[in-house]
Amino acid sequence: MKYYRSHVLVCVDPECLKKGAHEVMDAFQDELVAQGLIDEVQVLETSRIGGCDHGPELMVYPEGVHYSNLTPDDMPYLVEEHFLKGRPAQKFITEEKVFTDEELSAPTAKEIRVVLRNCGKIDPENIEDYIAEDGYQALGKVLTENTPEQVIDTVLNSGLKGRGGAGFPAGKKWQFCRASKETPKYVICNADEGDPGAFMNRRVLEGDPHSVIEGMIIAAYAIGSSQGYIYCRAEYPIAVKTLRIAINQARSMGLLGKNILGTGFDFDLEVRMGAGAFVCGEETALMASIEGNRGEPRPRPPFPAVKGLFAKPSNINNVETYANIPQIILRGAEWYSSMGTEKSKGTKTFALAGDVKHTGLIEIPFGLTLREIVFDVGGGIKDDKKFKAVQTGGPMGGCLPESYLDLPVDYEAITKAGSIMGSGGLVIMDEDTCMVDIARFFMDFTQDESCGKCTPCRVGTRRILEILERICAGKGQPEDIETLEYLSAQIRDDSLCGLGQGSPNPVVTTLKHFRDEYEAHIFEKRCPAKVCKALIRYEIVDGVCTGCTVCARNCPVGAISGERRQTHMIDPDVCVRCGICKQVCNFNAIVIN
Amino acid sequence: MAGNGKDGNVVVAAVKVAVDRYGASQDELIPILNEVNREIGYLPGEALDEISRLLRVPKSHLFSVASFYRMLSTKPHGKHVIQFCESAPCHVSGGREVWLALKEHLNIDDDQTTPDGKWTLLTTSCLGVCGVGPVMVIDDDIYGNVEPSQIPTILEKYH
Fold it and tell me: How many CA atoms are closer than 13 Å to the CA of A1, on its beta-carbon side?
């Protein structure tokens, strides 16, 4: 296969053609020949690279430089500057378009985009866009130049760990599966990104589906598989649709199916949609679900690499793991392992959510501290309130307080701090968050999502939830904290899968770091963050209230009384603490006590 | 979308379409159930009978699968289904007030249908649009940055 150092896309939309796009392209190619660069630069015709208002225009990758208002006479200068001297020809560069993307803004100084590099930049429904970004080059390289063992070695040497949460080295997993003798073997992509607040995988599937598909084909070649499945949660209908389009396009170009790229290697892919069960993100439950069963986990060993889907050897990685693979193959294991910390290599995507100024996706090298993530990348806490805690690792993760802000984020450090990396959700909470309520909230989630197979998880999470609800309702009992600790230890030790074992984590970590809040609820019947409804009262401040009657008119239960232009009153026995009055008051006259 | 007493023929036809599309095999069960659930609005007993017959899978297994997954329902839903995201990012950005306002406004609880059959209120797990929480979905329409006071206006749009 031929490698080009640059790809140049020339817009040939009618408008640009009218302004002489073909003439520019011809002059450009002539000049490449003249300067001896024609073998290093690939020129492609494309459409829609800009608005065509300033055509003819062209785009140079990998730099992503956009030149416009070009004439054939400009070509000698452009080719010499950019392609010979290697510096962008400033005079033809147009201002970069400002993207207004709520989920994924332009990378901040501390970010490195590997997995998210194409998201928002290419058209996910057009395979040619991906190919223009070096797409499927890694596949071509491994199929023509590497043995499966060499591919596995590259992945091993890169230090890539499974991005689904547990952080098991991806190369090792592939090695185990390759070593299994039984056939057929399956390659599975876990796209059941269920952790609340984590939507990195959704964005990759919707924005750059081919990177995942290419990673899977390479994995299939490495382990010796000819059939793959992508299991995507049903909550992501757009991701499913995008994936199906991408698979069909890859198939029609001979990148999936029989005899891929003419090398005799066969592999095909199918998308399976879930039906709404969080536990199906657990690998054995996921495979049970593909087989048409209840998504219940089973004990390991045997591990999927030995006995997985349909009791055959299977390699299962998550979306982000596969999306890293093409880049690792193309740019080398050393490049990848040069990023990150001693034991956690490369970059990781995170979804920032909650009370942080810039919510959305980020991708950073391992080793940045939580403080850098929250304050430098995330822009700090909304409304300049005080940071209280960050919840890492989703519902089975833990809440880390301010004292952990200087923790460098990698698999080892987060685990040592008592939380987990998980898939990469980071929920940031400000001073107005009640940690008991948060623990109750996560417990409500896990007890609901417990598949019911193991008693400690099924019953234990329910009991913990009841206790937490009681505490939040102002009916906490002195022995509750001790009972919570006892139950948490039992559930952790006696459940089968990660969901059960991790489910007490929010309780354990909040008890460890915010014990005083539990005590305030139980012994003083007080919610310090003023969140728990049974422990707070809405009151109207005399002198601030103007008697405008807005609160009384909006109260859904008629708890507010008072004459026009007189201070109003809230009847605490009728009030349901919905907070609407506080929200609609224009004078900040309503306070919580 | 259908209420009680869905015409048996319609159900059998919907099952046939789904089974023809995916093939009569147990590992296609979840795609089949998903499709029938989407067509009919839920999975009536007749649908499970018919799937059981075509796939040669015991009805007990079908029921165990259908009752396991949140998106499959064995009971009828209202004309419009509201799914409220109950995940942490929505919760900490004011979701609980919206949830209370929804329940208050419709006078029903989670997983219930209004007596007139117009609304069913469900919670959903994270929809991954956490950047604009709190989030709710009515039928196929997603609403982000919802505030409690907007509830009546949003619901008014549906007839």
Answer: 18
> Please, which residues bridge with residue A42 across strands?
A7
Rounded Cα distance between A166 and A184, Å, is 26
Please state whether beta strands A398-401 and A387-392 pair in parallel, antiparallel, or not at all (unpaired): antiparallel
Question: Looking at the complex, does the CB of residue B155 fall below 8 Å from at least one CB of chain A?
Answer: no
A31 burial type by CB count under 10 A (0-12 exposed, 13-18 middle, 19+ buried):
buried
The residue type found at A237 is P
Residues in contact with A254: Cβ distance below 8 Å, sequence separation at least 6, in sequence order: A260, A261, A262
Contact A445 B130 (CB under 8 A): no
Q: A residues 314-353 near B, CB within 8 Å?
A: 351, 353
Instruction: Decide if domain B80-156 falls under CATH 1.10.10.10.
Output: no
Q: Determine whether the interchain pair B148/A583 forms a contact, defined as Cβ–Cβ distance below 8 Å.
A: yes
DSSP A276: S
- Nearest CA-CA partner of A15 in A45, A43, A44, A57: A57
Q: Are B68 and A451 in contact (CB < 8 Å)? A: yes
- Tell me phi and psi for residue A190, to 5 degrees: -85, 100
Contacts of A531 (CB under 8 A, 6+ apart): A432, A433, A434, A437
Q: Would you tell me which residues 176-195 of chain A have a C-beta closer than 8 angstroms to some C-beta of chain B?
A: 193-195
Q: Are strands B119-124 and B80-85 parallel, antiparallel or unpaired?
A: parallel
Domains and CATH numbers, chain A: 6-92 (3.40.30.10), 127-335 (3.40.50.11540), 347-430 (3.10.20.600), 435-523 (1.20.1440.230), 537-592 (3.30.70.20)
Which helix (H) or strand (E) is A285 found in, with range?
A: helix A283-290
Cis omega (within 30 of 0) on the bond before A62? yes
The whole-angstrom separation of Cα A173 and Cα A11 is 44
What is the token pair recorded at A271? 């998308």
Hey, what amino acid is at A443? M
Q: How confident is the model over A380-427, as pLDDT tens digits?
A: 999 999 999 999 998 899 999 999 999 999 999 999 999 999 888 898
**pLDDT digit string, tens, across residues A522-543:** 999 999 999 998 999 999 999 8
CA distance B29 to B33: 6
User: pLDDT tens digits, residue range A338-393?
Assistant: 999 999 999 999 999 888 998 889 999 999 999 999 999 999 999 999 999 999 99
Angle separating helix axes A170-179 and A209-223, nearest 10 degrees: 40
Which sign does the torsion angle of CA B15, B20, B25, B26 carry? negative
Q: Say what the alpha-carbon torsion angle A49, A138, A236, A277 is, to the nearest 10 degrees.
A: -170
